[in-house]
Amino acid sequence: MASGLRHERHSVSDLKMHLVCVTKYRRKIFTNESLELIHKSFVEVAKKMDFQILEFNGESDHIHTVMGATRKSEIGV
């Protein structure tokens, strides 16, 4: 059974972040193609900065992403 904890040399962590990005005035500007491009960009950045995209979805006026990171990740410190 996986606990979801990240075991590093000197720490054990379970850091999760929920990021919501909303368009100005909730304008409906995101298309399926733009959401796919944003998701691809998030995955590329996640690989470079040592965190995971656990969940990503969105609609025409906002996106949601849940990220998991270690303490040493630049986004969590």
Automatic annotation (TrEMBL):
Q: Where in the numbering of this chain does the Transposase IS200-like domain appear? A: 11-74
Matching Pfam families, A to Z?
Y1_Tnp (PF01797)
Superkingdom of origin: Bacteria
A GO term, aspect molecular function: DNA binding
Cross-referenced InterPro entries, in alphabetical order? Answer: Transposase_17, Transposase_17_sf
GO aspect biological process, one term: DNA transposition
Q: What is this protein called?
A: Transposase
This protein's species is Nostoc commune NIES-4072
